[in-house]
Amino acid sequence: MEPQRQSVFINRELSWLDFDRRVLALGKEKTVPLAERMKFTAIYGSNLDEFFMVRVGSLYDRTLLKNEITDNKTKLTAAQQLAAIMPKTADLQQQCDKIVVKLRQHLAEQGYVRIDFQNLAKEDDRFWKKYFLNEMLPVLSPQIIDHRHPFPFLRNQEIYLCATLKAKGDDAVSYGLIPISSQFDRMLYLKKDDQLLYGLAEELILRFADLVFPKGMLQKKCLFRVTRNADIDVKEGMFDQDIDYRQVMSELLKKRRKLAAVRLQFWNEPPQEMAKYLCEKLMLPEKQCFYQESPLDLSCYFKLAARLQADGRTDLFYPVAKPMQAPANFKLSEEAKRRDVLIAYPYQSMRPFIKMLMAAAYDPDVVSIKMTLYRMANNSQIVQALVAAAENGKEVVTIVELRARFDEQNNIDWSKKLEEAGCTVIYGLDDYKVHSKLTLITRRSQGRYFYTTQIGTGNYNEKTSEQYTDLSFVTTNQEVGEEAAAVFNNLAVERLTDDTEHLIVAPLHFKSVLLKEMDAEIEKARLGQPARIILKNNSISDKNIIEKLVEASQAGVSTDMIVRGICCVQAGLPGLTDHLRIRSIVGRYLEHSRIYAFGEGADLRIYMASGDFLTRNTERRVEVGIRVDDPAIAKQLWGILQLQLADNVNAREMRPDGSYAKVKPADGQPLVDSQMELYNYFKDGFTATAPAAPDKKAAKEAPATGGIWNKLRSWLRSS
Q1: What H or E segment, with its residue span, contains residue 23?
Q2: Mean pLDDT over residues 126-135, rounded?
Q3: Which of 1, 479, 510, 572 is in Cβ range 3.0-4.6 Å of 506 for a Cys bridge?
């Protein structure tokens, strides 16, 4: 039986690369507007940078251990995983290069033409030479590397020019380096006739690099970029218990900049001896060196897209879709007293929640506000509300997670501001990240305490609330409030929560609850009764959950999974996962909400939570979710799932070999873009219960809301 179980597993890192492949694919998707395709290409590049800094960096560290740890599912060692990652990355890079060529062609058709600095006409060459001498050369900081000048430290993700230098009559060859820093704009623009010419600073510097070094010395040159390991273990800095936790994190952030190199990118094909020299100095094997025709840092496409927007080229972007605002007289706290409320981002605005916090800051009946804070906006109105509450004499308790990767400095700065205002700031547990999205507002009226509780799937971040699909559940149910209060009290004394009725709280009372729910569906299937599971999350790698999914499939449980990113289980394997279907939705918005549904109809049990099915979430983080017992909101969540299962615009389905194929509409089936249709779905969300998307059983009863809903209902009936 063991070999069979092993065959359903997909390696986490390789699955992540497949996810980034789906992101990159949107860079060539014809239905996506041109500027958005550019941004998806940039997102792909940013994702890959982080993958190497974190995941490859972690694998690199593991290869240094005496007793190497293997992946608990595929049994691959770190070295074997690295060996598998590199050719996949090289293949992705080739695809990216082809997409960039096409993007350039389409941009040229729109009047935006790339400057090829290596092949300039004489007049253009004179213009750019003058620009280089006046604007760039004065701020460049070239370095010579020879027997008197050792090889310098190369900064993470910075682009450099490397040159071989040789004086006339001298046999010795030395090297020159030019860091291409952010002291000038990377994107260069020039209006010419009816076109806008654009180019990259590093390519201009490459063209005129011979003017930087003594005349006649430059022999060969190339552009390159280094990616360094950024995976830091906080425990490294916690041995001295007298050191302030913020100080530890600040020191570790400095250390992050100096960790080992894990990737070397070259623009085009570099001279062989130069590539060999840099690999030796950075102690990198050749397989971790990548040659590319596309820009070394794809973030340039974010900047170019911003220029298109500034030029008023709205035709090259998605149509404007702003979050729906609540009516002027809508008060979330008052509405929550009448009924449980579900707010869906980015379709509905976060403003009612922020207003509720700010009103609580000035409400004389409010005695305390408690929140978990993981990632916050740079100019956070939520923090401002908490500061106002503390200044007004409320007890404000915040659980600030300083280990939110790449947001550490932002969280350090906000934690200082909160403390200065008089808030109690707690930094969570030593061994567990606090990743939950939980708020508790406590009022005292007529000698009694009343709770308003908010449980979310996404961060308290105004910016991402307009970019990520997330859910925010608000209730005045006192039992839920008491359980939330217990969670905060436990965090304050560094204790885990293990006994709740309404909430599910990782690591002790999260996975066990969901496994029990899956067991209930398995038992129904074995008794010959209809059994149904639908799971929507960002990622799944937890071995226990995967094994339970296999068991459910073998028992005949009809199971659908909507997994945006990492997915370490293979669907559609005969005798193993043939009742399991997996799809990924990658589109205009980042799918971030987590919904877990068991059964259907009158037997539906449905949850929303902050945690994925990654082992780090289920076993090493404090996550909070809730079983949604309110029938109207349970129906809303079920409708979201049904709509996403009907998506044939953004969805890709997993094949039995682990690859993904784009979902195409069947004959007579309407086009369903679930992300955009949710605007219609939640159009009355602040004032009434939104209609549930029709599923096969409920199609006759589903209320008509026009357009796509009528088409969906008709198609679902016929199917």
Answers
A1: helix 12-25
A2: 96
A3: 510
